[in-house]
Design goal:
single chain, alpha+beta, 5-stranded antiparallel beta sheet, 23 strands, about 35% helix, globular
Length: about 725
């Protein structure tokens, strides 16, 4: 009997060993198949939310005839990153199934279409903060959780008690109507830190809101006709246009196109209303929807042309839901375009007119350029750029700033389906495994623009036509007085680093409120953190000037060109990503460089200078002629050689960890080299540096003797100042 039992045990052991070996082989084969063949239908990884691991996602490899999408897709959803609507034209180095290292994707899966766990945590008014998981969801509603980092070392308790929320509005085209402006001005005084911030993406931010007040603030904005939905998060962000409210048909078409895309790509889930409005409709329709209704702007070329808001809503729904059968529509009833997990990262769109590069056209995920017919009165179609973006990470060369590629041209009637196709391509094929490489620019870079065009065309169902030649780009800031073309005027006001505040004798915030209250003006924000006061009657211009002067606000003639061209991100004390100062030291850096140029005989000279507190690039530093990018403490990377018109090239990294006290000594040889070797005064600093290249610049700087620029100084005639 014992012998029989031993024999049976040996056979069982052998069988188990064979099963284990087979299992390992199949598992390895499954992994190999998925890694090498993105669209192999036979084997795909299946992910599940493992209990007890705080929502983190872990993979388990199985062999199955079809992918199990239930863990990642909403009920009824057919297409998305784990089952693309169209295959990529060439192999990608990821398959969007190994997502265990990307916590954000798992949070979006369990987030119930941008609701959980935020809804539960916001109901707890005893606590002053929310969890990291809730923050991921909150971003899509337009808010970030922050702390006052000035207190981090000096006041531990104060720092612990300093939890607050930054709220970013959605302001398509940078427009803010009078009612919404009055609302946010009041809210910033009552619930915020008594200032407003104009961002580089033409939106307002309110800082310093406490958790217990956040619902009140968001609801108040929505009921005034504004919104914060889409201010942040892995969805379509604020859509930019040139800020000029001129009646020229090209500009009006850009304005309407931007409003249309903002509405087309607005999340469809009811979560925003459920979280902030108790499930009710806002008391006021968003002001940009009013602009889409026939007759509101005098331009009716962009579909849908509607005579009422109700008709507009129906046409927008039909445009969003139109299904050509090419895999654009996901099948998710709540989010037909986005699906359960929305996009891999933020998605930034801009629209401009030929020649006007006030929006930094090459820095967006998608930029449309309106193309008019020969009369200049009627819209024909759009040139499309894709794959721009500024964000990168220090010491991680797989991340980089990138300028957009020219995708091609489409007719105006193809706007909706082509834009949906680009969004679907990024939704399905953007890299969700490595969040640092999730932006559209990395997909375009990996595929190449020609293959990316093929991918878009597979969703679009038709060919994208060749790019229409354009005139040269010009960086226009639209500051000062300009005619609108309808008998009225607008005034561009310089706002240093976008901070609208009252400080000492400088009372810009009070002045703007008085102007809006008195004249009912709309405000438009610019991509350079400035503002436009719109719709001014000729007879009121002098009164507007007087109000601003009375409140210590300088006219554009009093603003030096370095200040006029410079922008900086907020950085410290509230941004959690900041490594160095930016907004608070940018005025000092401008003054120091102005003084340096004055000393070496370059009075009144200027170039585009930008500063960020970290490498994420919110102030678009990598396009600047000279940029300072925070590396920790008071040290910065210096980038050189961007275009003065930001027309399609990035700067290059010149030096790392330049200390604050060493800035003048580091920059001195560059400016003197420019002065002494440029091809006349018309050659701008960035173009000069780009023409010479890094090797020649480094060689000159190495041989430069400190102080040479200040010997036998020949003072050059100042360049003509902008109007």
């Amino acid at each position: 009997l014992v012998k029989v039992l031993f024999t049976m045990a040996a056979k069982i052991t052998s069988a188990v060993a064979l099963l284990v070996a087979a299992s390992l082989f199949l598992g390895a084969h499954a992994y190999h198949s998925v890694s090498l063949n993105y669209f192999a239908p036979s084997v795909r990884p299946v992910f599940s939310l493992r209990a007890g691991q705080r929502g983190r996602v872990g993979p388990r490899m199985v062999a199955s005839p079809k992918p199990d999408l239930s863990a990642w897709f909403a009920p009824g959803q057919k297409y998305g990153p784990q089952n693309p609507g169209q295959p990529a034209p060439t192999q990608l180095p990821y398959d969007n199934n190994k997502l265990d290292k990307n916590k954000v994707e798992a949070i979006k899966v369990s987030g119930d279409h941008l609701k959980s766990p935020l809804q539960q945590e916001m109901a707890d008014l005893e606590s002053i903060d929310i969890s990291d998981e809730a923050v991921v969801i909150l971003k899509h509603h337009g808010s970030y959780q922050q702390q006052n980092r000035d207190l981090q070392k000096s006041d531990k308790k104060g720092y612990a008690d300093s939890y607050q929320f930054m709220l970013r509005l959605k302001n398509p085209c940078g427009k803010v109507d009078a009612k919404t402006y009055q609302c946010i001005d009041d809210l910033s005084e009552k619930y915020g830190q008594k200032d407003l911030r104009a961002t580089t993406r033409m939106a307002f931010q309110i800082h310093g809101i406490r958790k217990k007040d956040l619902k009140t603030v968001i609801a108040s904005i929505a009921n005034a006709g504004g919104s914060t939905l889409g201010g942040c998060g892995d969805i379509n962000r604020n859509v930019m246009t040139p800020p000029a409210p001129v009646s020229d048909p090209a500009y009006q078409n850009a304005f309407q196109t931007a409003n249309y895309i903002a509405e087309l790509f607005k999340p469809s889930s009811p979560s925003f209303a459920e979280l902030w409005l108790d499930g009710e409709k806002a008391a006021e329709v968003e002001y940009w929807k009013k602009d889409l209704v026939q007759g509101s702007t005098g331009t009716n070329h962009i579909p849908p042309v509607a005579s009422t808001i109700e008709e507009l809503d129906k046409k927008m729904h039909d445009a969003r839901m139109h299904d050509a059968g090419t895999g654009i529509i996901t099948g998710d009833e709540l989010e037909p375009l986005y699906g359960r997990t929305y996009l891999p990262r933020k998605f930034k769109v801009a629209v401009t007119v030929p020649g006007d590069n006030s929006i930094d056209a090459y820095t967006h995920d998608v930029c449309l350029v309106v193309i008019m017919d020969e009369s200049g009165k009627n819209l024909k179609g759009y040139n499309i750029m894709v794959g721009g973006g500024m964000g990168r990470t220090h010491n991680k060369e797989t991340t980089f700033a990138r300028t957009a590629d020219h995708l091609g041209y489409i007719a105006k009637e193809d706007l909706t389906e082509c834009m949906k196709s680009i969004l679907a391509a990024q939704r399905d094929h953007g890299n969700r495994e490595i969040r640092a490489n999730a932006r559209l620019k990395y997909l375009v870079h990996t595929l190449g623009v020609d293959n990316f065009r093929k991918l878009v065309e597979s969703y679009f169902g038709k060919k994208i036509q060749p790019w229409v030649p354009l005139p040269e780009w010009q960086m226009v800031d639209w500051l000062g007085w300009h005619p609108q073309g309808d008998g009225k005027w607008f005034l561009g006001v310089n706002v240093e680093q976008g901070r609208i505040k009252n400080e000492g004798s400088f009372k810009l915030k009070t002045a703007l409120r008085k102007i809006v209250d008195t004249y009912g003006c709309d405000i438009r924000l610019t991509p350079h953190q400035n503002i436009e006061i719109c719709g001014i009657e000729e007879k009121e211009k002098a009164k507007i000037d007087a109000i601003l002067k009375e409140h210590g606000v300088k006219s554009i003639q009093e603003i030096d060109d370095m200040t006029r061209k410079g922008i900086a991100c907020p950085a410290f004390p509230l941004c959690g990503l900041a490594q160095s100062e930016a907004e608070r030291v940018m005025p000092q850096y401008i003054n120091r460089i102005n003084n340096l140029m004055e000393k070496m005989g370059l009075p009144g000279e200027s170039f585009v200078m930008r500063m960020t507190g970290c490498p994420n690039g919110c102030a678009r530093p990598y396009m600047a002629e000279m940029a300072f990018v925070g590396m920790g403490g008071d040290s910065y990377q210096i980038w050189l050689g961007g275009s003065p018109n930001q027309d399609g090239r990035t700067a290059w990294r010149w030096k790392d960890r330049v200390k604050n006290e060493d800035v003048e000594g580091t920059i001195e040889p560059l400016l003197y080299m420019w002065k002494s070797q440029r091809n006349g005064q018309a050659e701008r600093f960035g173009d000069f540096i780009h023409r010479l290249g890094q090797e020649a610049v480094d060689k000159y700087v190495e041989s430069y003797e400190s102080g040479t620029a200040f010997k036998n100084v020949v003072v050059e005639k100042p360049p003509l100042k902008k109007a």
